[in-house]
Structure formats: structure tokens, C-alpha cells
Design goal:
With about 325 residues, the protein is α/β, with parallel strands linked by helices. The chain is built from 11 helices and 8 strands. Helix 6 packs across helix 7 and helix 7 crosses helix 9. The longest helix has about 30 residues.
Length: about 325
């Protein structure tokens, strides 16, 4: 599935980050603890360069508690990077964030040399909720939908500590297919940019192999060896009464149920990727992307040769 969702305001966000980054001391990237690799924006790494980075694994209360430490260890092993876990609804997260930023930029944080922090994240990762908790007021709009925040804003978090908020930003092209599905399942991508049934099938495929007990407990269905995602979706639809005339299962309705209950964690605390799994998906995605680029280059070369803007390969002079 090719998910491409890059609304106009995201272009403005990219431009704003490019201009703001020159005066920023630390970049906070809010990640979804259920998909820490897929929710990390590769475009952000390009825009922020070698700036100290604080990776905040948000929504830890929804993620598998056995997987989150693996991701914290992964990010903490990276140079000039720290990682912490967080629930955006915590009442006192400000001190943890401020302390982590000071550890990354120890010479900043006074009134003479204030700490200047940029906070970024993909849509619907909980950034606005976190900022409202940090400030103790409704400083940012929130909602369970991608693309709520549209404007950059500066927030004074403490004396000598300035926080710049930016709208959630995806990248124009998602080269890791599995990441596209995971982002869609999490709610990071607008509902009109993907097919719910396809996303639910990919989600169920992972849950069957990694969380069969949660599926059985929630939907009261069997998860025998070899069961397919299609069979599981149909079984869930029948259990939940999503049945059309003629005893046919309404797969669209069943898919909506599965996605909603994953997002709400009523299905259980689930993480959709480990560091090793994501590294494997990323390597495969990069290889496939490189192969696509070679094909595109060949097509473009042939077009230019046809238009006589390039010489034919066999007509080039030999040395």
C-alpha cells in the first residue's frame, strides 16, 4: 500500500523548521511508543542535522511494557541522543523534559543563555495534549485526528526555557511499507488516505503472530496455527454482529472495530515493532527504493535519448 499524505500546511512546517533550527539548542521528537521506529520522521533528521535530540516515547500506557525498554535502549545508544518514556496525560512531565534537555545542552538554560527547544512529531502523536499538560492550560488544540495543529507557536515553559511547537509532519513518501500500515493503524494518517480493511488485515497479521492471547481474550475467537488475517477479520466480524444480508460479513465494519480497539487499547497494550524488526523493514525498503530509482533513471535516460537531448549509448565516442 502506498500511503502519501502531505497536506499543504506540512510544507509550511518543513519551511518553519528549516528557518527555526538555526537558533535551536535541543530538538524534542515525540514518538508513538507503540511504533517508535515508524513514527520517527526521517525528514526531521535531515532538517535538524546534528542538533542534540531528545526522543520521547509517548503513549507508553498503550504500548507493550516489555517492548518499550528495548526502544529506550536503542535510542539511548545513539550519539547525542537521549530517550525517555512518557504518558502525555501525566500531571508533572515538565521537570523530566527540562532535565533531559539540560543534560543534552548543559550550558543553556539561564536568562542570559536561555534553552531554546523545538518540539516535533507526526500527526496525532499526542504533542498538543503534552503541551497543554506542560503549560497547565489549553495552549494547543487537541483531537483524535491527524493534522489538528496548523501553526507554529512559542511557549515559555520555565524561566530561561523556551519551547517552539510545530504542526505534526509526515514525510512525502513512506518507503517502508509496514510503517505505512502501522502509521495508519495508529491514527497518524488522515482517514481518507488509506483503506481500513487493508490496514486491519496487516494489523491482524502482526497480532496473530505476536499477541494471539489478546485476540482470543477480546473477541472470544480461536487463534489456531495457520489461521490467516482474512479468516480472523471475518471471525471478529461475526462475533461483533457485523453481518450483511445473506450471512455475509461486513468486512469494512469489522475492520473499523479492530482499528478503533487497537487505538483505544481496549484490545490490550500492544507494540507493533521491535528495533530489530524495524531495522529489517527499513533495510528492505531502502533496497526496494533504490531499485525503483534505477528503473526511473533508465526510463528518464531513454526519454532524453528519444528527444535527442542525450546521445545514444552506442554513439558515444570511445576513448
Amino acid at each position: 500500500m502506498a500511503i502519501q499524505w502531505f497536506p499543504g500546511h506540512m510544507h509550511l512546517t518543513k519551511k518553519a523548521i528549516s528557518e527555526r533550527i538555526k537558533e535551536i539548542d535541543v530538538v524534542i521528537e515525540l514518538l508513538d511508543a507503540r511504533l517508535p521506529g515508524s513514527s520517527a520522521n526521517p525528514m526531521l533528521a535531515e532538517l535538524t542535522g546534528a542538533k542534540p535530540a531528545l526522543k520521547v516515547l509517548n503513549k507508553r500506557d498503550l504500548a507493550d511494557p516489555a517492548c518499550t525498554p528495548l526502544w529506550l535502549a536503542h535510542y539511548n545508544s545513539l550519539p547525542n541522543t537521549r530517550a525517555i518514556e512518557l504518558d502525555a496525560s501525566e500531571t508533572t512531565p515538565a521537570r523530566r523534559l527540562i532535565d533531559a534537555c539540560h543534560a543534552l545542552a548543559p550550558t543553556r538554560g539561564s536568562m542570559v543563555k536561555p534553552m531554546r527547544v523545538l518540539i516535533c512529531g507526526i500527526p496525532n502523536v499526542g504533542k498538543s495534549t503534552l503541551i497543554n499538560t506542560l503549560t497547565g492550560k489549553r495552549a494547543a488544540k487537541t483531537g483524535d485526528e491527524a493534522g489538528i495543529t496548523k501553526l507554529e507557536q512559542r511557549i515559555v515553559l520555565a524561566d530561561g526555557f523556551y519551547l517552539w511547537d510545530t504542526p505534526g509532519m509526515l514525510w512525502p513518501r513512506i518507503i517502508v511499507a509496514k510503517s505505512g500500515y502501522n502509521l495508519a493503524a495508529s491514527g497518524a494518517i488522515g482517514r481518507n488516505a488509506f483503506d481500513e480493511e487493508e490496514v486491519a488485515l496487516e494489523l491482524l497479521d502482526y497480532l496473530i503472530s505476536h499477541y494471539p492471547a489478546l485476540l482470543q481474550a477480546r473477541y472470544k475467537v480461536g487463534v489456531p496455527p495457520g489461521v490467516t488475517d482474512e479468516q480472523m477479520l471475518e471471525a471478529i466480524g461475526r462475533k461483533r454482529g457485523a453481518v450483511l444480508p445473506g450471512s455475509r460479513v461486513n468486512l469494512q465494519k469489522a475492520a473499523e472495530i479492530v482499528i478503533h480497539e487497537f487505538r483505544a487499547a481496549t484490545l490490550g497494550r500492544i507494540t507493533l515493532e521491535t528495533p530489530e524488526e524495524f531495522a529489517s523493514w527499513l533495510a528492505a525498503g531502502r533496497l526496494l527504493d533504490a531499485e525503483r530509482q534505477v528503473k526511473k533513471d533508465k526510463i528518464e535516460t531513454a526519454r532524453l535519448v528519444k528527444l535527442k537531448k542525450l546521445p545514444r549509448p552506442d554513439s558515444r565516442s570511445k576513448p
